[in-house]
Every structure is written in structure tokens, then in C-alpha cells.
Design brief:
Layout: H1 2-10, H2 16-55, H3 76-86, H4 91-107, H5 116-123, E1 139-143, H6 150-164, E2 169-173, H7 181-192, E3 196-198, H8 205-209, E4 217-221, H9 230-243, E5 247-250, H10 258-267
Helix pairs in contact: 1-2, 2-4, 3-4, 6-7
């Protein structure tokens, strides 16, 4: 209230645009202060409850506080905080997300119920509006851990390029390890009506490519490898040297824990 009552005086002698920007900044600052005051009040209440519990006789029932409260009043934000912490989101990001979400809700003049999930999704930047914008070149290779969805993803990318962009696609795989991997992609290729090549030890990737008339896009699937599998990581480098891709995409499941994602990235081979 103190900040907002001062806004008209601050805007005197300024251009309308500068005054508008300043009002927005002051309003955001006021919202953050309100948020911090709520946290401080909740912390004080929590400490008071803990002190009261310590002074109670042993026979008295113990009042337990929410383990995930962490200074937030019992509300929607407390549930969000619990889910974020259970997913091992870093504490600094939890605080930032909850503060930004609270500010967004306070500015929602229409008083709409904008869920945290939808709000968070709207903040995630993508390389393009659809799956055809982020290939990075003509020859594209996908690598990553086992079970993250590389084969399904590469089949979807092939469908986008074939059906939406009407381009000539060559679908390839080096995955001779997983049972049914070759048959799975071969079936996708047959449904889409595009050529398919499975790479074995007795044939090079470049030799397989030479059998096809200058495709617009070449998509290469690879076997999933644990980041702790040194031999598997070396194999990625060998495939990269043979294929000479324009772009290599590391595929990770969106629901992986953050520390697991970092572990995968840190153990990936030195591939551009």
C-alpha cells in the first residue's frame, strides 16, 4: 500500500511510457515484499508452535507442522512447494517460482484460476512452434540413455517432415542392441512410406546413405547407453565420426530428476 500510494507522485515530470514502466516495477517490488512478509509470518508461527510443543508435558499431544511448509502459509503454494521439493528441484528455484507465480496471480485482474502447471509450461522456451523447426541441419543424430524415448521421438520427427513438409526422409538406426528396435523403426518407415536402413558392423553409415537419392533429411537413431557405460560413450563418438552429422540431439525424459539429468550431461562424450 505504501509503494502504490506513492506511484502518482513518482510519475510527475516523466513521460507516460517511463511512468508506466516504473509503476510496473514498483508494483512487482510491492508484491515481492508482500510475499516475503507472508513467509516471515508463517516462519514465526511455525517457530511458536515448535516452542509450545517443547514446553508441553510429555503426556500432552504433540502438534506437528507440515514438513514441506518451509515458511509458506498452508495454501496452494504449500502443495506446489511439496511437489517441487519431492521432485528434487533446487531450493533457489522453488523460491523463485513460487514468488513469480504469486505475483502473476496478484496481477490477474480477471481473477481466473491459472494453475501452476499451465503457468510453468508457458514459461518453458522451445526452439520452435512445432517439431520441424529445431533439427539443426540435414543429417541429424539422436543419442541418450536407455528408455528415454529416442526411437519414438525420431519416428515422430520423421512423420512431421514427411507429412507436414512433404520432404524426402531417410530413416536409419544403429540400435542392434535392443530387442525389436530395428523392427519397430522399420514398421514406422513402412507406414510413412519412407526408406529405412539398419546399420550393422559390416556396412558403414556413409555406404548406406549412398544407396539413396539425396534425401532432404537423414535421421539416425542410436542405442540407449547408460552414462556410466564408458564403452557405450566411446561408441557414440565412433558413430559421430562415421556419420558426420550436422546436429546431435541429447534426448532426456522431461520427468527425470535434475541431478540425474546433470549426471547424464557430465558423462556424455565430447561430441558437438
Amino acid at each position: 500500500t505504501l509503494f502504490r500510494s506513492a506511484q502518482p507522485e513518482i510519475s510527475q515530470g516523466m513521460s507516460n511510457n517511463d511512468a508506466k514502466v516504473l509503476k510496473e516495477q514498483v508494483g512487482a517490488l510491492a508484491d515481492r515484499i508482500d510475499f516475503l512478509l507472508q513467509r516471515l509470518t508463517a516462519v514465526e508461527n511455525m517457530n511458536m508452535n515448535m516452542n509450545n510443543n517443547m514446553n508441553m508435558p510429555m503426556s500432552a499431544p504433540v502438534v506437528r507442522t507440515n514438513n514441506f511448509q518451509s515458511g509458506m502459509p498452508v495454501s496452494e503454494n504449500s502443495e506446489i512447494e511439496e511437489k517441487l521439493r519431492a521432485s528434487e528441484v533446487d531450493e533457489k528455484y522453488i523460491r523463485k517460482l513460487l514468488a513469480d507465480y504469486s505475483i502473476m496471480k496478484s496481477k490477474d485482474k480477471n481473477n481466473r484460476k491459472f494453475s501452476f502447471t499451465k503457468w510453468l509450461a508457458s514459461r518453458i522456451e522451445c526452439a520452435g512452434d512445432n517439431g520441424g523447426d529445431a533439427f539443426g541441419g540435414k543429417k541429424v543424430m539422436l543419442i541418450g540413455p536407455t528408455g528415454v524415448g529416442k526411437t519414438t521421438t525420431i519416428a515422430k520427427l520423421a512423420a512431421i517432415k514427411k507429412l507436414w513438409y512433404v520432404q524426402n526422409i531417410l530413416l536409419m538406426t544403429c540400435d542392434n542392441f535392443r530387442i525389436g528396435a530395428i523392427d519397430q523403426l522399420k514398421t514406422f518407415a513402412r507406414i510413412l512410406g519412407i526408406p529405412f536402413e539398419a546399420i550393422f558392423d559390416n556396412i558403414s553409415i556413409q555406404e548406406a546413405i549412398s544407396r539413396h537419392d539425396d534425401p532432404d533429411i537423414i535421421l539416425l537413431d542410436t542405442a540407449g547407453r547408460s552414462q556410466l557405460d564408458k564403452a557405450g560413450m566411446d561408441l557414440y563418438e565412433n558413430i559421430n565420426n562415421d556419420f558426420k552429422p550436422d546436429a546431435v540431439h541429447l534426448v532426456l525424459a522431461a520427468n527425470m530428476k535434475y541431478k540425474d539429468m546433470l549426471d547424464v550431461v557430465e558423462h556424455m562424450p565430447d561430441i558437438p
